[in-house]
Amino acid sequence: MSDKYFVHEDALVETDTIGTGTRVWRNAHIMPGAVVGENCNIGENCFIEGHVVIGSGVTIKNNVAIWDNITIGDDVFVGPAAVFTNDLRPRAHIKKTFCDLEATVIKQGATIGANATVVCGITIHEHAFVGAGSVVVRDVPPYGVVYGNPAQLRGFMCECTRELPATDGRSQCECGLAYVITGQNITPAS
Amino acid sequence: MSDKYFVHEDALVETDTIGTGTRVWRNAHIMPGAVVGENCNIGENCFIEGHVVIGSGVTIKNNVAIWDNITIGDDVFVGPAAVFTNDLRPRAHIKKTFCDLEATVIKQGATIGANATVVCGITIHEHAFVGAGSVVVRDVPPYGVVYGNPAQLRGFMCECTRELPATDGRSQCECGLAYVITGQNITPAS
Amino acid sequence: MSDKYFVHEDALVETDTIGTGTRVWRNAHIMPGAVVGENCNIGENCFIEGHVVIGSGVTIKNNVAIWDNITIGDDVFVGPAAVFTNDLRPRAHIKKTFCDLEATVIKQGATIGANATVVCGITIHEHAFVGAGSVVVRDVPPYGVVYGNPAQLRGFMCECTRELPATDGRSQCECGLAYVITGQNITPAS
C-alpha cells in the first residue's frame, strides 16, 4: 500500500498501478494487473479483474464487478450494483480464454445507473446517461439518455445533467456549454 | 458491541444506536450516525450509511445498500440485492452534498422485492408491495402492488399478502382485516 | 478445509460436503448443511444457505445468494449478481418456516444471465438460457431462450450456444448435436 492512495484495511489490493488520491473501500478487491487512475472512489465489495483499465476521477459505488476486457474512461460514474458482463453466451461447460471475451467500453463522463445491466460488446459513449435498472444491449451515443429493458434512447443530457433538446441545430445549455445536434448525433460546439 | 443485539464477528458496526434483538450478519457495515431499531435482521454484505433511520422489525436481506437520506419504517421487508439511490442524475465530476440528495421513504410494513431498483425522491407507502426485479420511479400508494420496468400499479394486497379487490366500497379480507376502497385509495376500516 | 478443494482465506465455509476441485473465492459464505459438487467455482461474496444442493461443474459468479429450497443442477452457469428468491410474498412481520418456502430448480446445463431475477416456485429446464437482466416468473422449457421483464420465450439455443430453428422436425446444429422440435418442445435426437 502506498501513501498516495487509501485502501481500507479490509480491502484487498493486488496491483500497484493505482493513482494518487484514489480510495478503495471495505472488502473491495482489485486483482493483479488492473490499472486504476487518480482520484477514483472504489466502493465496498467491488471487484476489479486484472485485464481492466479504469481512468481518473471515476466513481464506482458498492457491489460492482468490473471484469476482464472492460474499459472505464475518466470521470465515469458507475451506480451501486450495476452489473457488467464479458461473455455473450456463457455456458459452464465451455471454458473461455481472454480472446473469447467481448470488449465493453464506457467512455469519458458517462453515467451507468444503479442496478443497470450492461451486456458486453458495446460502447457507451461520452457523457451518456444510463437510467437505473436499465438493461443495455446496444451502443449508446454521446450524451444519449437511455432507460428501460431493453434500454432505448429517450433523449439527450448535457454534461451538467440538464436535458438537451432533440431538435437539429445549435443548442446552448443553461450551464453555458453549447452543442450541435444532427439527428441522433450531438457534438460539443465552441 | 452490546449484549442487547448481535453483530457477526466479520461485520463492522460503527453506531451505538441499534435496538435490542437486532442481528447484523457477516460483512455488513453500518456507518456512524445510523439509527437501527429493535428486532431487525441486517443481511450479509449490507451497507447502511450514516444519515439513515431504520425502524423496528425490519428485515433487509443480503447485498443491500441503504444510502443517506433514505428512511425505512417499521416492519419493512427489503429483498436481496434490492437497490436504492439518492441522486437522480449522478455525474462523477459533480460532487454532491447532503442537501443535494433526494429523500426516499419506505413506510411501515412495505415490501421491496428482490433485485428491485428504487429511484430516489419517492415514497413507497404503508404495506405496499414492490415485485421482484421492478424499477420503481414514482410513489406507490398504501397496499399497492407494483411490478415491471417501469413499475406500474397492478392491484392491492392486504397486510397478510392476500389479494384485495379493486372495486370501490368496503372489503373484508379472509384474514379479518377490513378496508375501504375508493379508486386507488385504500384505507383500513374498523 | 480439505486439500481436495480450495477455499480463499477470507471465505467462510461451514459444510464439509464439497466436492474435489471446487474453488470458493473471497468472502463467499457457505452455511452448514449445504451440498456442493465437484469442480464448481463459487465467486466472491456469494452466499449459499444450508438447505441447498448444487451439482458438479457449476459456475456461480460474484454476488449471488442461493437460498434454502433452491436446487442447482450440474454444469449450470449463474451470472454475476443474479438474484434468487424463496418466498413469493414476503412480509417482515410474517415469519416463514422451511415448509412455507417455494422450491426453485435450475436443471443441468442451464444459464442464468447476469443480474437476472428468478422468482421462486419455477423450474428452469435443461440447457435453458436466461438473458442478462431478465425477470423470470414462469418455467423455462429445455433449451429455451428467455429475456425481458417479464422474461418471455424468444427462441431456442443448443448446448453449444448456437441458435436453434423454431420449426418443427429434426434439426442438426453445426456442432453436431441433433434435436427433434415439436412446438415449444425440443428433445435431443440420436
What does it look like?
The structure is a homotrimer of 190-residue chains. The first copy, chain A, is mainly β. The first copy, chain A, has one domain: UDP N-Acetylglucosamine Acyltransferase, domain 1 (3 Solenoid), CATH 2.160.10. Helix content of chain A is 0%, strand content 35%. In chain A, strands 1-3-6-9-12-15-18-20-21-22 form a ten-stranded mixed sheet, with no helix packed on it. In chain A, strands 5-8-11-14-17 form a five-stranded parallel sheet, with no helix packed on it. In chain A, strands 2-4-7-10 form a four-stranded parallel sheet, with no helix packed on it. In chain A, strand 21 (152-157) and strand 22 form a beta hairpin. Chain A is globular, with a radius of gyration of 17 Å. The A-B interface holds A 10, 26-27, 44-45, 57-59, 61-63, 75-77, 79-81, 109, 111, 113-115, 129, 132-134, 148-149, 157, 159-161 and B 12, 27, 29, 45, 47, 63, 65, 67, 81, 83-85, 89-94, 115, 117, 119, 135, 149-150.
